[in-house]
Design goal:
The complex is a heterodimer. By secondary structure, chain A is an alpha/beta fold. Chain A is built from 7 helices and 22 strands. Chain A has 2 domains: about 210 residues, FAD/NAD(P)-binding domain (3-Layer(bba) Sandwich), CATH 3.50.50.60; about 120 residues, FAD/NAD(P)-binding domain, CATH 3.50.50. Chain B is built from 3 helices and 5 strands. A 5-stranded mixed beta sheet of chain B has the order 2-1-5-3-4. The chains are: A alpha/beta, B alpha+beta. The structure holds flavin-adenine dinucleotide and FE2/S2 (inorganic) cluster.
Amino acid sequence: MSETIKTDVVIIGAGPVGLFAVFELGLLDIKTHLVDILDKVGGQCAELYPEKPIYDIPGIPIITGNGLSEALMEQIKPFHPTFHLGEMVTTIENIGDPLYRVTTDTGKTFECKSVVIAAGGGSFQPKRPPIVGIEPYEDKSVFYAVRKMENFRGKDVMIVGGGDSALDWTLNLQPIAKRLTLVHRRDDFRGAPDSVNKMRALVAAGSMDLRIGQVTDLEGSDGQLTAASIKDKDGTVSRVACDAMLPFFGLTMKLGPVSDWGLEMEDELVKVDVSTFETNRHGIFAIGDINTYPGKLKLILSGFHEGALMAQRVHHYVHPQKRLVFQYTTSSTSLQKKLGVA
Amino acid sequence: MPKVTFIEHDGTVHTVEAELGATVMETALRNDVSSIVAECGGGCTCATCHVYVDEAWVEKAGAPSPQEETELDAAFDVRPNSRLSCQIKVTEDLDGLVVRTPSYQGR
Ligand SMILES: Cc1cc2nc3c(=O)[nH]c(=O)nc-3n(C[C@H](O)[C@H](O)[C@H](O)COP(=O)(O)OP(=O)(O)OC[C@H]3O[C@@H](n4cnc5c(N)ncnc54)[C@H](O)[C@@H]3O)c2cc1C
Ligand code: FES
C-alpha cells in the first residue's frame, strides 16, 4: 500500500461540478485532491456529449461539453489541484472529528478534513454483456480491465470488442497468451488504424484468431471459463476454447459504492442540507447531480451554486480558527493574489 | 401527426403520436417507453437507445451512418435491422413505423 496522502479535502468525481468546487474551495485557501474513475476530467460532459453544445451556462451563450471541461481546468489552474484518474473511491472512514480516511480501489489512501461527493450520475463503469450466467465468472475469468498482464500468460484469451481497448489489449496480450481470439460483430474496427493493421498482420501470420460474430454463451464451472460460443453473421454457432475473457463494450453510469457510505439517500441520491450541502455525516458534502433536496434541478449551474455554499461550510472544518470574510474576486486583492492576477 | 409503435421485449406495445422532426428516441422518452434509456441524450455516444426496426420499415428508416455503426459496437445482440433510435428522425414517410426494443440496453 502506498503512503497516505494528507490534504484538506478529497473531491470524489471530476465532472464539471467537482472541478468548479476546486475553485470555490481554493478561494478559501482549501487544498484539494480529486479522484475519478474515468481516465479524463469532465464527467458526463466529456464522456457523453463532448461535441454537443450547452446553451445554459450563465454568461456563456454556447460551449461544448469538452469546451466547458477545458475552460474549468483553465479556471482552477491557480489552485494546483491534484488529480487521481482511473481510480474509484471505495470507502470513507471516520477517524477523527471530523477527519476522514478515503480509500480507492487501487489501495491509495487519503486523510482529509472534509469529503466532497461530486459523483454525478454515479461512476462510469464498463457495460456488462447480457450473456446469461456471466456473473459467476466476473473477476475470476471474465475481466473488464487488465490489472496485471501476467495473469493472462499461457491462457486461451478471448477479447470482445472493436475499439481501442480491445485492440490495445489484443496486441499486448497476444505475445504471452497461449492463443488469443478477438471477437467483433463486424469486420470493421474503430480503433487506431495502426493497431488495426498490426492486428490484421498477426491474423495473417496465423499468430491469433479473428472471429466476426457475437458471444452468446459461456461454459465452465466455479467461475472458471472453459469455452465460449460465438454466433456469426449467418447464425452459425461455434465453440471456442477460452479460459479468460475481456469484454469491451464501453461505459455506463452506475451508482457504485456511494450507497455504502452510510449516507441518507432517496432514490439513489444523497440527501443534503440546502444551506451547506452537508449530508447526514458531518464533514461529508454532496454537490451536483448526486444530491437531492426539495426543488433540485440536475443542471450544471445548480451544481456550481451548491459548490460555493459548500465551500463556506467546509472552511469551518479546515480552518476552524479563521474568521471567514465575504469577498468579491473583482475587488479583493487577497483573492486576486490567490488567482495569480494581483 | 405520424404514429410510431414500440414493441418492448416483454411484449408491451405502445402506439404513440410523434412530432415531426423529433427523433424516435425522443418520442420514446416522451411516452415513457422505459426500455429506451438514452443515457447520452441523443449524442450517439452511449448505444442505450438501441432498437430493431421492423423488417417492413428497414428501407424507409435508412441505414446507419458510419458514426452510428461504430457506436452500435457498444450495443448487445446487434442484428442487421439494428439502429440507434436517436439517429432516426420522424418524417411523414415514417408514419406507422414499428420498432422493437432489445432485452437489455447495457444498464
Ligand atoms: C446528453 C446530456 C446533455 C446535457 N445537457 C445539459 C445542459 O445543456 N445544461 C446543463 O446544465 N446540464 C446538462 N446536462 C447535465 C449535466 O451534464 C450534469 O448536470 C453534470 O454533468 C453534473 O455534473 P457532476 O459533476 O455533478 O457529475 P458528472 O458529470 O456525472 O461527473 C461525476 C463524476 O464522478 C465520477 N465518480 C462517481 N462515483 C465515483 C467514485 N466512487 N469514485 C471515483 N469517481 C466517481 C464519475 O466517473 C464521473 O466522472 C446534460 C447531460 C446529458 C447526459
Ligand atoms: S441516446 Fe445515446 S446513442 Fe442514442
